[in-house]
């Protein structure tokens, strides 16, 4: 249920949210098409349906001093941080012009200039890294905060629990964001979780836990903004953001564990259409305006594919670059 005043927000701010969510949607649709054409290899996890989580959350940050870390379903977060869609698509294609020089692929997007540190392929392994970033902020007396995104499957990893405990003991500026899209691969979170209200898990470590509607970008923004303010004061926060992915776990997943009715129910809560409808009701945009924006973002997505197609393959000797040992 909406618990905020839409009139508080400047029209340009709302337009920016809509544009970014719609860009992620069109980019992901194009990525799916390219995967089907075998232009993209390896794993590929799409973010379609979850756009409001990354966009609403990252809108609450100052990326000159704040940091973002996420798991392998990372295309949306990368674009929400302002990464160039061309560099992202080139990375999916494994090209030299990709953001990780074509060596990371879909699961390892990365851009230091945007304070976006992945894109991490091992379930839950980046959660301690986020705590490390928060420790660095505190150690250097900086004013930043860290957003750490992970899925409902990662919440059962030991690293999650150890990280929350450490974050609270040291009063670190980190917001833990569980993107609960209801399924860890093909298994409903309700089948494997003794506690299904993940926000309650923060209580075990004396950390505030909040349930958030992840299909509403403004609700996400409001809650993350408050959480970031708390984190800056040395109060880590756990957000259980309820969302839904419209596609399979990855591109190879037919999703037969879900009913058509369930998917249709969540499609009626589409975060892009929801914000568009509210903006039309407020006379901020009309259908023609929306269609113009949509066509522009489809063009940007198509141009990212053209850029990736025309980019060079990385030379073989590059495989030995950027290694610790």
Describe the oligomeric state of these chains in a short phrase: single chain
* Class inferred from helices and paired strands: alpha/beta
| CATH superfamily (homologous) name | Thiamin diphosphate (ThDP)-binding fold, Pyr/PP domains
Strand content: 5-15%
Helical fraction:
40-55%
Compute the number of helices: 11
**Main beta sheet, described?**
5 strands, parallel
Instruction: Please tell me the CATH architecture by its name.
Output: 3-Layer(aba) Sandwich
Shape: globular
Radius of gyration: 19 Å
Contiguous uncertain segments of 5+ residues: none
Number of separate domains: 1
Distance between the termini: 52 Å
Instruction: Tell me the total number of β-strands.
Output: 7
Q: What can be said about this structure in brief?
A:
The protein has 325 residues and is of the alpha/beta class.
Spell out the blueprint of helices and strands.
Layout: H1 11-36, H2 51-58, E1 67-69, H3 75-80, H4 85-92, H5 126-139, E2 146-151, H6 158-169, E3 174-180, E4 183-184, E5 187-188, H7 189-192, E6 208-213, H8 217-232, E7 237-242, H9 260-267, H10 271-281, H11 287-310
Parallel strand pairs: 1-2, 2-3, 3-7, 6-7
Antiparallel strand pairs: 4-5
Helix pairs in contact: 1-2, 1-10, 1-11, 2-8, 4-11, 5-6
Describe the overall structure.
There is one protein chain. The protein is an alpha/beta fold and 325 residues long. The model has no long low-confidence stretch (mean pLDDT 96). β2 (146-151), α6 and β3 (174-180) form a beta-alpha-beta unit. It is globular and about 50 Å long. The protein is 42% helix and 10% strand. It has eleven helices and seven strands. The termini are far apart. α1 runs antiparallel to α10 (271-281), α2 (51-58) crosses α8 (217-232) and α5 (126-139) packs parallel to α6. The chain has one domain: 3-Layer(aba) Sandwich (Rossmann fold).
């Amino acid at each position: 249920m909406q618990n905020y005043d839409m009139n508080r927000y400047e029209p340009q701010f709302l337009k920016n949210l809509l544009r970014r969510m719609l860009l992620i949607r069109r980019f992901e649709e194009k990525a799916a098409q390219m995967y089907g054409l075998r232009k993209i290899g390896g794993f590929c996890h799409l973010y379609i349906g979850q756009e409001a989580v990354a966009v609403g959350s990252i809108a609450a940050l100052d990326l000159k001093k704040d940091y973002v870390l996420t798991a392998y379903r990372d295309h949306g977060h990368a674009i929400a941080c302002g990464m160039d869609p061309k560099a992202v698509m080139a990375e999916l294609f494994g090209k030299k012009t990709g953001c990780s020089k074509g060596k990371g692929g879909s699961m390892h997007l990365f851009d230091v200039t945007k304070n976006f540190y992945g894109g991490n392929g091992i379930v839950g392994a980046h959660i301690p890294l986020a705590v490390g970033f928060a420790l660095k902020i505190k150690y250097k007396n900086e004013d930043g905060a860290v957003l750490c995104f992970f899925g409902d499957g990662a919440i059962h990893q030991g690293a999650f629990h150890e990280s929350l405990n450490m974050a609270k003991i040291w009063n670190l500026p980190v917001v833990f964001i569980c993107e609960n899209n209801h399924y860890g691969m093909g298994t409903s979170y309700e089948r494997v979780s003794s506690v299904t209200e993940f926000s309650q898990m923060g209580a075990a470590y004396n950390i505030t836990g909040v349930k958030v509607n992840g299909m509403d970008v403004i609700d996400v923004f409001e809650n993350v903004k408050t959480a970031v303010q708390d984190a800056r004061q040395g109060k880590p926060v756990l957000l259980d953001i309820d969302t839904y992915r419209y596609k399979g776990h990855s591109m190879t997943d037919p999703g037969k564990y879900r009913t058509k009715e369930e998917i249709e129910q969540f499609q009626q809560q589409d975060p892009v259409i929801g914000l568009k409808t509210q903006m039309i009701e407020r006379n901020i945009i009309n259908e023609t305006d929306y269609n113009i924006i949509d066509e522009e973002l489809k063009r940007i997505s198509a141009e990212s594919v053209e850029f990736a197609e025309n980019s060079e393959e990385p030379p073989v000797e590059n495989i030995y670059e950027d290694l610790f040992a």
